[in-house]
Amino acid sequence: MTVEQNFEALDQFPIGMRVLAVDDDQTCLRILESLLRHCQYNVTTTNQAQKALELLRENKNKFDLVISDVDMPDMDGFKLLELVGLEMDLPVIMLSAHSDPKYVMKGVTHGACDYLLKPVRIEELKNIWQHVVRKNRGSNNGEKRDGSGNEGVGNSDQNSGRANRKRKDQYNEDEDEERDDNDDSSAAKKQRVVWTVELHKKFVAAVNQLGYEKAMPKKILDLMNVEKLTRENVASHLQKFRLYLKRISGVTNQQAIMANSDLHFLQMSSSLNGLDSFHHRPIPVGPGQFHGGAPPMRPFPSNGILGRLNTPSGIGVRNLSSPPAGMFLQNQTDLGKFHHVSSSLPLNHSDGGNILQGLPMPLEFDQLQANNNNNNNNNNNIRNMNNNKSIAGSSMAFPSFSTHQNSLIRAPNNNLVVLDGHPQASPPGFPGHQNNKRLEHWSNAVSSSTLPPPQTSNSIHHQFDVSPLPHSRPDPLEWNNVSSSYSIPFCDSASTMSPQALDTPNPGAFSRNTDFNSNANANAQPGGFYDSLQMRQSGNYGPTTDAMLSTNPKEGFVVGQQKLQSGGFMSADAGSLDDIVNSTMKQEQSQGELSGGDLGYGGFSSLRTCI
Amino acid sequence: MNTIVAQLQRQFQDYIVSLYQQGYLDNQFSELRKLQDEGTPDFVAEVVSLFFDDCAKLISNMSRSLPDNVDFKQVDSGVHQLKGSSSSIGARRVKNVCIAFKECCDVQNREGCLQQVDYEYKMLKTKLQDLFNLEQQILQAGGKIPQVDIN
Question: Is B70 part of any domain?
């Protein structure tokens, strides 16, 4: 469908709604396809879950809804469900011949919007579009209508519209901006909450206070005392957070969890939004955008993570960098989460308060970013959210998360958490890159003056017992550990982190160096971020980032970028980081596009702090 | 010509009604037929043949692993899939034997049940083949496939 067609379709939503159907049984798939076509949806089918993930990661904005069978040989349907939900934040409907309530329950707990029994009837399919609308409403707080669709249609339209628009002008930040502007409370319809680091921190604090097990959305909401935040927002964020924790608790690499939890979470969420978390950028940069699928993305293992970030569970990491930074454009919502997550993530939720402590960064970051990005991020996030659906890399992120843990763990403060995820996932080369990204976030976060004293980091580490990360050491800003992409210390991770974002979303980001300068702001969106990132790496931190920042208000990354530059990034093992960054960058460059978004990591002001 | 067409159509109608009455097909099949239109004239035939291919494949896989008793999981998942696809196309009897098969598995009587599944799907295949042939005849004679309303 061309963009124009898409737009038209949007106007006629639910007609033309883009559905991805996954079922290994070819008979059922064929029937499902036909049924969906008869509902006038735009159907894409695949009989492999892996292929489905690739498609989704390739372009977050390509689909509105996913329908998947439960029993599939190459991947458990529930797992796919989780990954899609976390990375791409798309509504997923489960299909099965199992009518056993146990399965239905499993579907629900894994985040399915609905659970249909085979044989599927067309009447049931005629109503599935409601899930798209519902999801959009829930996740967008104050999302504003682009004025594209009808209010009535709700987010889905908007999102689609946005998606379409994005497709049309991929790097056109303007749209995002417009959208962002109003996000505050204009659209009653979908209020997409941008889970900034700050917000997430509050969330985590509330959860800790209530006790993880006992945390209920209503109580959390009350404790958080945030205006305009609804119980639904909290509930959905809580769900994501829980899933995230569950996911990371399963991760063998404890470290990762620890350090990265926040970051990770945010990253993951963000990845959902579109991996952009880092620089995700909503930018449809190109095929590569979706980190997950695209090879370039690889390095950004965090895709998943980032994606996560975007999700409610999103670790604060994302936000760290600066939600507003273009990066998050997509994952605005996650951004917030991202930050918060970091704090909340600590594996020991039992610690309650500890979690927060652990992640001083996120806070910092929030502050840092809050200033710049809040607006931007929100906007971006909203946008991104929609667009990020396809967190390509995200799915990887999660798994990678565990693997990457290293990087993540490091960042006690923040977002490092996220980083970890990435580095591992991503090819060795990239990790560095990713770390860079993360670092950037970190630096941003770190740089923020409010950065809590290292002590906190230490505590964080402790809290995160899970991860034996070497970095756990007290030095929160272990930026200097650049060498280990794996466990990049906070700082390092920052760098890595950012790369993550960069890596995945726009491998090209790095390659965009050149662009950076020219585009820095403008459409750099996806690339802008990267560009800045790249620049950073090349040592142009100073000027570039600043420029970037200023130019791209929208781009969260810009903000982030700055941070990076000034932040620890440079200073922190400039050499090592640079190397990493450069290496990652190279990788990214080769990869292509995505990079654009990465730079956006938004605010890895943490880098700055590293320095 | 018209009488021939009319005759064929009547034959078709009777045949399909009998299939429903005998439980070979159920409502899902008529839903499937509704999905067929000018754009997808062979939809039902395609789906049904996909189904039969799946049946053959799954049954052969299952019968291979049954004697050795090695891969129960595969057998279970195979019959589960068969149950899903048969219910999706409205192959009622096949679906029922699949359900019975699942129960047989519980009591370790896999082989016996599998044979039933095999029998039913082959039976259905024959019947549907006849039905499609009738359809073809009608079309070739210039007639239209009657929309049969199954109550």
Answer: yes
Which domain covers residue A207, as residue numbers?
195-258
Q: Does the reported pTM lie above 0.90?
A: no
State the smallest CA–CA distance between residue A12 and chain B in angstroms: 22
Per-residue pLDDT, averaged over A47-73, amounts to 88
**Model confidence over B34-91: pLDDT tens digits?**
888 878 888 888 999 999 998 898 888 887 776 666 667 777 888 888 888 898 888 8
Query: Nearest 5°: CA angle at A311, between A124 and A179?
Result: 85
Which structure tokens are listed for A181?
């502007």
Alpha carbon distance A404, A414 (integer Å): 15
Q: How far apart are CA A439 and CA A533, in angstroms?
A: 10
B81 within some domain? yes
Q: Who among B31, B40, B50 is closest to A27 (CB)?
A: B50
Residue type, A468: P
Q: Per-residue pLDDT averaged across B3-28, rounded?
A: 88
Nearest to B87 among A24, A30, A118 (CB): A118
Contact between A27 and B46 using a beta-carbon 8 Å cutoff: no
Q: How many CB atoms lie within 10 A of CB B2?
A: 9
Do A208 and A128 belong together in one domain?
Answer: no
A vs B, Cβ pairs < 8 A, gives: 56
| Nearest residue in A to B49, CA atom | A27
Q: Are A432 and A481 in contact (CB under 8 A)?
A: no
Within 10 angstroms of residue B38's Cβ, the number of other Cβ atoms is 5
Global ipTM: 0.88
Three-class secondary structure of residue A567 per DSSP: coil
**B80 → chain A, closest CA residue:** A97
**Residues on chain B touching A71 (C-beta within 8 angstroms):** 77, 80-81
Cβ-contact A173, A555 below 8 angstroms: yes
How many angstroms separate the CA atoms of A206 and A198, rounded? 12
- pLDDT tens sequence across A338-383: 444 434 434 444 444 444 444 444 444 444 444 444 444 444 444 4
Closest listed residue to residue A603, CA positions, set A447, A493, A489, A440: A440
Classify residue A82: in a domain, yes or no: yes
Domain annotation covers residue B27: yes
Chain A residues 59-118 with a CB less than 8 Å from chain B: 69, 71, 96-98, 118
